[in-house]
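Feature request disguised as a bug report, sorry. It would help if multi-protein outputs had a clear separator. Right now it looks like this:
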Amino acid sequence: MCLILVAWRTHPEFPLVLAANRDEFRQRPTAPAQWWQDRPWLLGGRDLDAGGTWLGITRDGQLAALTNYRDPVRNKTDAPSRGGLVVQMLESRASMDVRLAQVAAVSEQYSPFNLLCTDGRQLGVFESVAGAARLLGPGIYGLSNHLLDTPWPKVERGKSRLAEALRALPDETGLLALLRDQETAPDRLLPRTGVSLEWERLLSSAFIQGSDYGTRSSNVIRIAADGRAHFREWRWRDDGSLEGETAFEYSIEPMGRIR
């Protein structure tokens, strides 16, 4: 993922609302969101190069999502795929603080990343560059390719629009609109992350439309107070038009009954 927006325990009917965009090179093979055949308790898209995922949710309401930290100097050659960390997080039955500690213990093996995760009771984040793991209280959070809530223009704009979109739920029109936002930031507000100015401009919008790289898919996940999970994925062509859409709705099952 390259943009994750989360409302945690701020809505009376939906304790968790997540809106996220996955930005990736066009040629990287990807499977649409589905229940995995080898892990039938896991729902998400799949990276067909390395086998992991950028975002996954389970039948018992566990959720994890990952963004890369953008700094070319810090990238490691021959490092394992960071998408495997999402799967490992969802496979664990440990408490949230223990899971975050487990990720921290292996984080040096990977290129830099941020990992958001919840077991339905607690929401946590691990930021590998800061080496920091912590649990988060109720609120609206934004994560792009830097630390949590770094005030990049698209993060700040996305959080503001998420707060507005919450008022219309269960209508998801506003959530999709914020994910489709192509407004770029003025040069004076652009971060400097080690890529060219041209790339900083391209990457500054929530929805990225580039010929070789761009927003490949968008996701909205809502978990209701009554235990229903709602999952939607939109997949986008190179020109930004809709390629496909998938939706799932299911009742969250008690932990321990799905494996």
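(second protein starts here, but nothing in the output says so)
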Amino acid sequence: MAGISVPKSKKLKLIFNNDVEVDYVIHETELAEKWFAKIKHLIKVPFDPHDSAMGDLSDLPRIYKEFCDFAGIDHEQFDQVDQELCNRLHKLYEDHHDRLAGVRNNTILYKFHNSVHAHESTKDYKTGIVTGWGVYEGPLTQYFNCGDFYEKSMLKNNLYLPWAELGKKPLTYFKNQEPNDQKRFNTLAKPHITFRAMFKVATQDKTPSVLNPAFLQWFEKYKQGWLAHHNIHKWDEIDEESAPLLAITDYKGDLRGCAVRKIIAQ
């Protein structure tokens, strides 16, 4: 009698900067399989420091000037960084992104974008170690409705696919006091529809909390138009605060403060 062929689970190992090694098994979903296929092409490519929260984003005035010099546009002087300024700088980034995205050596474009978000008054609570390749992932970025794969909760040390749109989540849009305008909301607020070759190691368990009632009341006015614009069917606390599961580990140690140094695919 012929034996039954059982496919071997796909595995990888992460080596952190403190030399801790953690083994993972790839989650059995279409998204996780596609992600694993992506990163196998990038294992020998260096991580991008600004896409991996390792670069210095603190000096926004200097980074902003570098961006303007690269873009060939005038820059203004400012002493105080507040949310209104961040909103204006983010709009500047959006206005020039498509033109500069194809220019060689354009890492300042994304460094500027990340620095703006790092100075916003409502930053996401840091619950994981994000690692990515930035512009070096190239054509491996693609459109994919990642929202269909979001987990109801996130578990410590597992790998998840982070939201990485060129925009803001709806709750962040609301908190940042962006314009009360359907067209602008449709353009700037984004669901998770860009599938990038990056990942996040969760550093704590997380269950999404109930969304702010004031936001829900505001969102109700724009919700249906926004959902239809992006061709998705829902947006709730899971979409705001969770993520798609990529890989599972039984490692129980504390990885807070660590950075991923190397990936080994098995």
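Even a blank line would do. Unrelated, but nice: The chain has two domains: 11-57+119-265, 58-118.
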